[in-house]
Write a structure and sequence with these properties.
Distance between the termini: 37 Å
Radius of gyration: 30 Å
Structural class: alpha+beta
Strand content: 35-45%
Helix content: 10-25%
Shape: globular
Number of helices: 5
CATH superfamily of one domain: YVTN repeat-like/Quinoprotein amine dehydrogenase
Protein name: Anaphase-promoting complex subunit 4-like WD40 domain-containing protein
Pfam families: ANAPC4_WD40, WD40
Keywords: Phosphoprotein, Repeat, WD repeat
Strand order of the largest sheet: 1-3-4-5
CATH class of one domain: Mainly Beta
CATH architecture of one domain: 7 Propeller
InterPro entries: Apc4-like_WD40_dom, PWP1, WD40/YVTN_repeat-like_dom_sf, WD40_PAC1, WD40_repeat_CS, WD40_repeat_dom_sf, WD40_rpt
CATH topology of one domain: Methylamine Dehydrogenase, Chain H
Length: 493
């Protein structure tokens, strides 16, 4: 399944990603040490049980070997025949004289291999090898015009990030292929691309990953064959099993203590990353120091999603299974925020990129509710009342995405296996297009900001889909004027 999708802006990725250096001896020792923490906490009874199992296993292996030997001994004819065959084969090979030179045999024959080429350029074998190397370099090259999509996926208990290339060809067609993978230690639940200068330069190319574990991993997308994240925020410091067979867990300072369900990077204050967790808290992390500097515990159930307001970068929105969304202004950390009620568990939320006062919340009951923060100004204690409630899908609306170019164009994805596009103009939503992308239950969708009518879709079938929404006549008719592409064949806007 694909659980999360993130687009990487064009021209950000290195043309040819570098190969990661293998871990140092100290790093390997540290990994082994951390992996041994849990084992070292086993009780004596558990260790005795393991020893008994190992001893029993060895006894069984010995018994099987003796039984096999006994069976061969009983069938003497079979044994003699097999021995004779082996002896004849060895006699034919004449292994006793293997190293003796034979004057009748040329160690280096006068065939094709003897051909001498005055230049490596004329040697067809070297040329073929060079061509293969050139093809490999070409396959690994990321052009500035290539769109890059990062998918968090899980298949056969293997969790990974798939970095995929989506390129537009000269004839207007698209070519889509995987570039490289990053193996993850835990089931991924959310991702967030960020370009904070973590390595000291002006910008970077990183992806933050939240998973079933309490740690947040930051991976460098400009490295291939990387086995460790560039940075880890929070996580487990030590596990120890007690005699009661209960596991005692010690977490790193200010860490989440449960799964990380949502992430949001602040594109204005680029060192800030917000996280939402099943431990009911919201945390703000400083990516430069790698530390959490603020924690909010204003929800009473799992916090599923967080989002920064791109127009007012100090304002953060969070949504929870406690049927509420909370609006926080981080300039006033002691303020409890403005809490607004919704009708079901929050699945996702998003700020309108064209209106600093508007946001939408998608819910487990298949509805999408729209809000205007100005409605809460008169009575902050009562929160915001929804401007509209849209019955968008038959099942949970797991994901939403605003179009960055076309105002009021919203995409919704659902576990009912459909993706729909909506025009939210005047707070009166109308369906513009509907698609069943064969992705299974849809868990994540995302519009590209640079190719704004391309919508990436991921779901339970584990195969990434990209929908060119302008290919739909209804979308082209209503929103085509916001595209830079030639739409002569499409109906007039």
């Amino acid at each position: 399944m694909i659980s999360a999708i993130s687009w990487v802006p064009k021209g950000v990725s290195k043309p040819i990603p570098a190969e990661a250096e293998p871990p140092s001896k100290e790093e390997i020792e540290e990994i082994l040490k951390s992996n041994a923490l849990e084992a070292s906490g086993d009780t004596e009874d558990e260790q005795d049980e393991d020893m008994e199992i190992d001893a029993s296993k060895k006894i069984n292996e010995v018994s099987q070997a003796l039984a096999a030997a006994d069976a061969l001994g009983k069938n003497s004819e079979t044994t003699i025949s097999a021995t004779k065959d082996i002896t004849d084969a060895l006699r034919e090979l004449d292994m006793d004289h293997y190293d003796d030179e034979d004057d009748g045999v040329e160690l280096f024959g006068a065939g094709v291999g003897d051909t001498y080429y005055p230049s490596n350029d004329l040697d067809p074998y070297l040329k073929e090898k060079d061509d293969e190397e050139d093809d490999e370099i070409l396959d690994m090259t990321i052009k500035p015009s290539d769109a890059v999509i990062v998918c968090a996926s899980n298949e056969d208990d293997v969790s990974q990030l798939q970095i995929c290339i989506f390129e537009e060809l000269d004839n207007g067609e698209y070519n889509f292929y995987p570039h490289h993978d990053i193996i993850l230690p835990a089931f991924p639940l959310c991702t967030e691309w960020l370009d904070c200068n973590l390595k000291g330069g002006d910008k970077g190319n990183f992806i933050a990953v939240g998973s079933m574990e309490p740690a947040i991993e930051i991976w460098d997308l400009d490295l291939v064959d990387e086995v460790q994240p560039f940075m880890v925020l929070g996580g487990v410091a030590k596990k120890k099993k007690k005699k009661s067979k209960k596991t005692s867990i010690k977490y790193k300072k200010d860490s989440h203590t449960d799964s990380v369900l949502g992430l949001a990077w602040n594109k204005v204050v680029r060192k800030y990353l917000a996280s939402a967790s099943a431990d009911t808290s919201v945390k703000i992390w400083d990516l430069v120091t790698g530390e959490c500097f603020h924690t909010r515990e204003h929800h009473t159930d799992k916090v599923q999603a967080v989002a920064w307001n791109r127009h007012v970068p100090d304002v953060l929105l969070s949504g929870s299974f406690d049927h509420s969304v909370v609006l926080m202004d981080m300039r006033y950390p002691s303020h409890t925020g403005i809490k607004s009620a919704v009708t079901a568990d929050v699945e996702s939320l998003a700020w309108d990129p064209h209106d600093q006062n508007s946001f939408v919340v998608s819910l487990e009951d298949g509805t999408v509710q729209g809000f205007d923060v100005r409605a809460a100004a008169s009575d902050p204690a009562s929160g915001c009342k929804p401007c509209f409630t849209l019955h968008a899908h038959d099942k949970a609306v797991t994901t939403v995405s605003y179009n960055a170019s076309a105002p009021k164009l919203l995409a919704t994805g659902s576990t009912d296996k459909t993706v729909k596009l909506w025009d939210l103009s005047n707070n009166q939503p109308s369906c513009v297009a509907s698609n069943s992308p064969k992705a299974g239950a849809v868990f994540s969708i995302a519009f590209s900001e640079e190719c704004p009518f391309l919508l990436a879709i991921g779901g339970s079938k584990g195969k990434l889909q990209v929908w060119d929404t302008l290919s739909d006549a209804g979308v082209a008719r209503r929103f085509g004027r916001y595209s830079s592409r030639n739409l002569d064949s499409a109906p007039d806007a």
